[in-house]
Amino acid sequence: MKQISTLIAYDLRIQLRERGNIALLLVALLLAGFGLFEGTRFDHHQRQAIAAAQAQETQARSEANSLAQRYFADPGAAEFKSLQWFRTAIDVRGYAFREHVGFAAKPQTAGSALAVGQADLLPAYVRVRAESMQSASTTVEIEHPARLSAGRFDLGFFIVYLWPLILLALCTSVLTQDRESHRLRALQLQGVRHGSMLAAQVMARTLGASALLLVFGTAASLLVGAVEPDAAGLSALAIWSGIVLLYSVFWGAVTIAICAACDNRMMAAFAGFGVWLALAVMLPAAFTAAIQLAAPVPERERYVRAMRDAGDRLPAGLQRLDRAVALEGQMAGVESVFQQARSRRQQLFDQTLVFSPVTLVYESMAAIAGNDNERHQRFMADVQQHQLRLRGYFQSALQMAALGDAKHHCPATCLGGYGFLDFDGVPRFTASAAMRVSPQAPPQLAALALWITALLMLAAVLLAKKRRRTTR
């Protein structure tokens, strides 16, 4: 044990004297800092957009209330001469179907800047109308498709895809360099086992570099305001640090297996890049393709045709809200087919996620940032419940207004008829308690420990085979 500790200390001092290693770590920290800056900028933009939408809703409600107060105080004023009931907030019909402005915003989490995840595709807020969920369920981020397909460079992207390359570059010289310099025999005569030396040196380099990254990332996150220094923010940073550390150890185990199999540094470098390409690019792509083939989702054109046919089958003369309810009833079967297909695909994805370590870590980082698909679906379920409450409110208001108008026979919009003043009574969106709970890492992340164990066992087998080959 003392010999291993001495070798680790000596190896780390040698690495610190290497200018190339220092330059590589500095570049890594610069990339991590840039990724954190981009993630923070995107998160700040999201929060500003949510605040602007909420301010627009409040302002629209205030202006509608002010207009109604002026109108009902003096309906014959000059400013109301050309007023059209279906384009004004003073009439419940115009307010319900045109002038009502209501938004539902997804609560942002404490660690939302640590990984963009799917937040650049799934909107942070949606507009909710009384008629139907179409305006909310079909809302997507309005941006150039090329930008969306390229994704965003953020701290999560750096950790998942670039940090493994840094670790491979730092660690693939362990044991392979000793084989080239013929030092292994001398170390073996001193009682140093190849496997112990390989695992100790690789993990020492990996954990040392990871500790530097975690200290830099934590300090930078707190300094630039990406994470607030409160309980929720520090908890998010702690979970993020644990994921990064576990992911680094995984790639350390990959490096141990590579160094156990390769005879020199050049071979280890090429093998490391090949393994990175297979694990970080090819395996996730094959994983996604297999999921899509195993659990296909019907074409969108089928949904559009079904909606057109359902609209044609509706009887004439229905009120707008009644028509929307009838249309949803006609589309219930098609909606169920699409929802079941999406659920099957998501269920299969969750069940097989452990077979792609890179995808698993990416999804874990998106989950702790609150920018994953599962949390967005919970948000949309809250939006649907709010939309049903909003529709129910306006249905009741329209029915009461129609009865009052038939009784009073108002020549223009009037109170007691279709006149509307209860703007503060219109339901507003409130997220459920589950949406306000700080997200945690998914339980599938524990499978990464099994990957590490399997890779270390593979490295032991490779070293044993190489030892038997050299002793012959």
From TrEMBL:
Taxonomic placement: Bacteria, Pseudomonadati, Pseudomonadota, Betaproteobacteria, Burkholderiales
Pfam families xref list: DUF3526
Sequence intervals crossing the membrane: 20-37, 155-175, 207-227, 239-261, 273-295, 445-464
Keyword Acetylation: no
Protein known as: DUF3526 domain-containing protein
Top-level taxon of the source organism: Bacteria
UniProt keywords, alphabetically: Membrane, Transmembrane, Transmembrane helix
Organism whose genome encodes this protein: Rugamonas aquatica
